[in-house]
Design brief:
Layout: H1 3-8, H2 16-49, H3 56-77, H4 86-94, H5 96-130, E1 134-137, E2 141-144, H6 146-176
Antiparallel strand pairs: 1-2
Length: 192
Protein backbone atom coordinates (compact mmCIF):
# COMPACT_ATOMS: atom_id res chain seq x y z
CA UNK A 1 0.00 0.00 0.00
CA UNK A 2 1.45 3.36 -1.01
CA UNK A 3 1.01 6.85 0.41
CA UNK A 4 -1.48 7.84 -2.29
CA UNK A 5 -3.85 4.99 -1.41
CA UNK A 6 -3.47 5.69 2.33
CA UNK A 7 -4.46 9.33 1.89
CA UNK A 8 -6.69 9.41 -1.20
CA UNK A 9 -7.97 5.81 -1.28
CA UNK A 10 -7.93 3.40 -4.20
CA UNK A 11 -10.47 3.95 -6.95
CA UNK A 12 -13.81 4.61 -5.32
CA UNK A 13 -12.74 2.98 -2.05
CA UNK A 14 -12.10 4.82 1.17
CA UNK A 15 -8.64 5.66 2.48
CA UNK A 16 -7.21 4.92 5.91
CA UNK A 17 -7.08 8.65 6.51
CA UNK A 18 -10.75 8.86 5.53
CA UNK A 19 -11.58 6.16 8.06
CA UNK A 20 -9.69 8.12 10.72
CA UNK A 21 -11.59 11.31 9.89
CA UNK A 22 -14.95 9.56 9.89
CA UNK A 23 -14.03 7.67 13.07
CA UNK A 24 -13.41 10.97 14.86
CA UNK A 25 -16.79 12.13 13.59
CA UNK A 26 -18.40 8.98 15.01
CA UNK A 27 -16.69 9.61 18.36
CA UNK A 28 -18.16 13.13 18.33
CA UNK A 29 -21.61 11.68 17.66
CA UNK A 30 -21.22 9.24 20.55
CA UNK A 31 -20.19 12.13 22.79
CA UNK A 32 -23.34 14.02 21.74
CA UNK A 33 -25.45 11.00 22.69
CA UNK A 34 -23.66 10.64 26.04
CA UNK A 35 -24.15 14.34 26.85
CA UNK A 36 -27.84 14.15 25.92
CA UNK A 37 -28.26 11.12 28.18
CA UNK A 38 -26.43 12.92 31.00
CA UNK A 39 -28.61 16.01 30.65
CA UNK A 40 -31.77 13.88 30.68
CA UNK A 41 -30.54 12.01 33.76
CA UNK A 42 -29.78 15.33 35.47
CA UNK A 43 -33.26 16.68 34.69
CA UNK A 44 -34.90 13.50 35.99
CA UNK A 45 -32.71 13.50 39.08
CA UNK A 46 -33.58 17.14 39.79
CA UNK A 47 -37.32 16.64 39.31
CA UNK A 48 -37.79 13.19 40.86
CA UNK A 49 -35.27 13.21 43.69
CA UNK A 50 -34.52 16.94 44.10
CA UNK A 51 -30.84 16.00 43.69
CA UNK A 52 -28.94 17.39 40.68
CA UNK A 53 -25.97 15.51 39.26
CA UNK A 54 -22.78 17.39 40.10
CA UNK A 55 -20.70 18.69 37.20
CA UNK A 56 -23.22 18.36 34.38
CA UNK A 57 -22.87 22.00 33.31
CA UNK A 58 -19.07 21.73 33.32
CA UNK A 59 -19.10 18.47 31.34
CA UNK A 60 -21.50 19.90 28.75
CA UNK A 61 -19.36 23.02 28.32
CA UNK A 62 -16.20 20.96 27.87
CA UNK A 63 -17.91 18.48 25.57
CA UNK A 64 -19.14 21.13 23.15
CA UNK A 65 -15.55 22.11 22.36
CA UNK A 66 -14.55 18.47 21.89
CA UNK A 67 -17.58 17.72 19.69
CA UNK A 68 -16.83 20.63 17.36
CA UNK A 69 -13.23 19.55 16.86
CA UNK A 70 -14.04 15.83 16.60
CA UNK A 71 -16.49 16.50 13.77
CA UNK A 72 -14.70 19.35 11.98
CA UNK A 73 -12.48 17.30 9.65
CA UNK A 74 -15.35 15.05 8.55
CA UNK A 75 -17.57 18.05 7.91
CA UNK A 76 -14.85 19.43 5.66
CA UNK A 77 -14.15 16.08 4.02
CA UNK A 78 -17.76 15.58 2.97
CA UNK A 79 -18.17 19.14 1.65
CA UNK A 80 -20.51 20.26 4.45
CA UNK A 81 -18.41 23.04 5.93
CA UNK A 82 -20.39 26.27 5.78
CA UNK A 83 -19.05 28.53 3.08
CA UNK A 84 -20.40 31.04 0.59
CA UNK A 85 -19.83 28.92 -2.49
CA UNK A 86 -22.35 30.53 -4.86
CA UNK A 87 -19.52 32.62 -6.35
CA UNK A 88 -16.94 29.85 -6.55
CA UNK A 89 -19.40 27.30 -7.97
CA UNK A 90 -20.45 29.52 -10.86
CA UNK A 91 -16.89 30.62 -11.42
CA UNK A 92 -15.69 27.01 -11.50
CA UNK A 93 -18.36 26.06 -14.01
CA UNK A 94 -17.40 28.94 -16.32
CA UNK A 95 -13.64 28.88 -15.74
CA UNK A 96 -12.76 25.47 -14.26
CA UNK A 97 -9.01 25.95 -13.81
CA UNK A 98 -9.31 29.40 -12.25
CA UNK A 99 -12.17 28.27 -10.04
CA UNK A 100 -10.28 25.22 -8.85
CA UNK A 101 -7.21 27.40 -8.26
CA UNK A 102 -9.30 29.63 -6.00
CA UNK A 103 -10.66 26.56 -4.25
CA UNK A 104 -7.07 25.36 -3.71
CA UNK A 105 -6.26 28.73 -2.12
CA UNK A 106 -9.35 28.41 0.09
CA UNK A 107 -8.18 25.00 1.33
CA UNK A 108 -4.66 26.29 1.92
CA UNK A 109 -6.02 29.24 3.88
CA UNK A 110 -8.12 26.84 5.96
CA UNK A 111 -5.05 24.71 6.63
CA UNK A 112 -3.14 27.81 7.73
CA UNK A 113 -5.94 28.87 10.08
CA UNK A 114 -6.23 25.46 11.72
CA UNK A 115 -2.43 25.37 11.88
CA UNK A 116 -2.61 28.53 14.00
CA UNK A 117 -5.18 26.84 16.25
CA UNK A 118 -2.86 23.82 16.55
CA UNK A 119 0.20 25.93 17.34
CA UNK A 120 -1.70 28.01 19.86
CA UNK A 121 -3.19 24.99 21.64
CA UNK A 122 -0.03 22.87 22.01
CA UNK A 123 1.53 25.20 24.64
CA UNK A 124 -1.83 25.36 26.45
CA UNK A 125 -1.94 21.54 26.48
CA UNK A 126 1.61 21.32 27.82
CA UNK A 127 0.82 23.87 30.53
CA UNK A 128 -2.33 21.93 31.51
CA UNK A 129 -0.30 18.73 31.84
CA UNK A 130 2.64 20.33 33.68
CA UNK A 131 0.47 22.27 36.13
CA UNK A 132 -2.09 19.47 36.54
CA UNK A 133 -4.91 21.90 35.76
CA UNK A 134 -8.48 20.94 36.55
CA UNK A 135 -11.86 22.22 35.40
CA UNK A 136 -14.92 22.57 37.66
CA UNK A 137 -15.64 23.56 41.22
CA UNK A 138 -13.12 22.30 43.76
CA UNK A 139 -14.72 20.10 46.38
CA UNK A 140 -17.83 19.56 44.24
CA UNK A 141 -16.72 18.26 40.84
CA UNK A 142 -13.41 18.55 39.00
CA UNK A 143 -11.76 16.83 36.08
CA UNK A 144 -8.43 17.34 34.29
CA UNK A 145 -8.20 19.80 31.41
CA UNK A 146 -5.57 17.90 29.40
CA UNK A 147 -7.99 15.43 27.69
CA UNK A 148 -10.00 18.33 26.27
CA UNK A 149 -6.85 20.08 25.06
CA UNK A 150 -5.53 16.82 23.59
CA UNK A 151 -8.71 16.36 21.55
CA UNK A 152 -8.39 19.93 20.23
CA UNK A 153 -4.71 19.47 19.31
CA UNK A 154 -5.18 16.08 17.61
CA UNK A 155 -8.33 17.10 15.75
CA UNK A 156 -6.84 20.42 14.65
CA UNK A 157 -3.87 18.51 13.21
CA UNK A 158 -6.19 16.06 11.43
CA UNK A 159 -8.23 18.95 10.03
CA UNK A 160 -5.06 20.64 8.76
CA UNK A 161 -4.20 17.39 6.98
CA UNK A 162 -7.73 17.17 5.55
CA UNK A 163 -7.46 20.73 4.22
CA UNK A 164 -4.12 19.82 2.64
CA UNK A 165 -5.52 16.62 1.09
CA UNK A 166 -8.32 18.62 -0.50
CA UNK A 167 -5.88 21.33 -1.64
CA UNK A 168 -3.65 18.72 -3.32
CA UNK A 169 -6.67 17.11 -4.97
CA UNK A 170 -7.86 20.47 -6.33
CA UNK A 171 -4.33 21.42 -7.45
CA UNK A 172 -4.06 18.12 -9.33
CA UNK A 173 -7.33 18.98 -11.11
CA UNK A 174 -5.89 22.35 -12.08
CA UNK A 175 -2.69 20.80 -13.43
CA UNK A 176 -4.38 17.91 -15.24
CA UNK A 177 -7.44 19.90 -16.27
CA UNK A 178 -9.68 17.05 -15.17
CA UNK A 179 -12.89 17.53 -13.19
CA UNK A 180 -13.86 15.44 -10.16
CA UNK A 181 -17.64 14.87 -10.51
CA UNK A 182 -18.74 18.29 -9.16
CA UNK A 183 -16.95 21.60 -9.42
CA UNK A 184 -15.03 22.82 -6.35
CA UNK A 185 -16.63 20.39 -3.89
CA UNK A 186 -16.27 16.67 -3.23
CA UNK A 187 -19.41 14.70 -3.96
CA UNK A 188 -20.97 12.82 -1.09
CA UNK A 189 -20.25 9.52 -2.84
CA UNK A 190 -16.56 10.15 -3.44
CA UNK A 191 -14.29 10.20 -0.39
CA UNK A 192 -11.26 12.42 -0.40
Amino acid sequence: MNVKSLVFGQGTGNSLFGYLVDGLNAAGSLLIFAIMALICADVLSRNLFNQPIDGVAEMVAASIVMIVFLQLASTLRHGRLAQADIFIYGFTVSFPRIGRSLTTLYYLAGAAMLGVVYQGTVPVLMRAINRNQFFGVEGVFTFPVWPIRTVVVVCAAVTVLQFLVLAVREALCVVRGTPINTPAAPSSGEPS
